[in-house]
Amino acid sequence: MVTKLYVKMKTFIKENCLSLFIILLAFVVFNFPLPYYIDATGGTLDISSKITVHQGYDSKGSFHLAYVTEFHANLATLIMAWFHPNWDILKMEEVVYENETEEDVYFRDRMMLKEGTQSAILLAYQKASKHVEVVNQKLYVVFVDVDADTELKVGDEIVSVNGKMISSKAELDDFIQAASSFDSLSVMVRRDDKEIVRKATIREEDGRKLIGIMLSEQLELDMDPELTFSFAESETGPSGGLMLALSIYNSLIFEDLSYGKKIVGTGTIDMNGHVGSIGGVKYKLAGAVKKKADLFFVPNGENYDEAMKEKEKHHYDIELVGVDTFDEALAYLRGWQGGKK
């Protein structure tokens, strides 16, 4: 029986070898990952589908995040990117640093999304004179420099340093600056639900002391009115902070700053309302235009210059506005009145 089965399989393979080869080749072409990523035209995400202010005010228009489409390249998409005018090929090391994994990158970007969202909520509620209070704060390691002399790992929650409780970036930085270069710090962290002590050595770079890690502050907020938010697992990064803050603020006040228009933008936000630069401006602007946005907010400086260059190059029909702060964006909207400036 085994012999008959073997003969049948051998005959089948011999008669269908070309088809089987094509199937195998197609599998490799479309599924085998290469050490490259591809950035392509992005799109927009309606914030109202992700964030809800309970008993908040409705908008006639809408506020949207702009995003970049980025994916791991295979042979087929790599070939397409060589010929596509709006697709760019990135080497693996431009996306994933030498000493980290793709899982580390994903963790960092998810934490940055949460941090940016929390900063946007805090700012919007304060600007709208609504109740908001930080009731808990945690500090996580989201990146470790390849040259850092440390036992810390991505995902560690910082608990204390040399016995002193630490819960913010500022507290840790103050502690490090007050110490001496080359001091070895005993850092208690929470890792895999256990508290353990790990070492980190201070070094000096460009006149500042550091231990070679990047941190993310995660806040627990008490708000009135209540707010809920829900992002998909694939949605990451802090670059939607400005638009999140504008959308939340608009839901908290009686005045509707959307004027029935589609308002898209990009830029990080901090608790003081400063707008920070981001990457992938040309892809985000192209996505906003494709989705027929009326207005596009972008951080001033290099981001604005790049966006304006793209607008002029492609003759985009969209109003482009550069801002440095949340207040500047608000002022523009109040004077804009849906394009009736």
Comma- or semicolon-separated keywords:
globular; six-stranded mixed sheet; 341 residues; Ribosomal Protein S5, domain 2; six-stranded antiparallel sheet; alpha+beta; Pdz3 Domain; 3 domains; single chain
Description:
The strands form 5 sheets. The protein has a 6-stranded mixed sheet with strand order 4-1-3-14-17-18, with helices on both faces. It has 10 helices and 18 strands. The chain is α+β, with helices and mostly antiparallel strands and 341 residues long. The longest helix has 26 residues. 30% of the residues are buried. It folds into 3 domains: 30 residues, no CATH class; 181 residues, Ribosomal Protein S5, domain 2; 82 residues, Roll (Pdz3 Domain). The termini are far apart. Helix 5 runs parallel beside helix 7 and helix 8 packs across helix 9.
Topology summary:
Layout: H1 2-15, H2 17-31, E1 33-46, E2 51-53, E3 62-74, H3 75-83, E4 88-91, H4 92-95, H5 102-127, E5 131-144, E6 157-161, E7 164-165, H6 169-178, E8 184-191, E9 194-201, E10 203-205, E11 208-210, E12 213-224, E13 227-229, H7 241-252, E14 262-265, E15 268-269, E16 275-276, H8 281-290, E17 295-299, H9 302-314, E18 319-323, H10 326-336
Parallel strand pairs: 3-14, 14-17, 17-18
Antiparallel strand pairs: 1-3, 1-4, 2-13, 5-6, 5-12, 6-7, 6-8, 8-9, 10-11, 15-16
Helix pairs in contact: 5-7, 8-9
A few lines on this structure:
The chain is α+β, with helices and mostly antiparallel strands. It contains 10 helices and 18 strands. 36% of the residues lie in helices and 32% in strands.
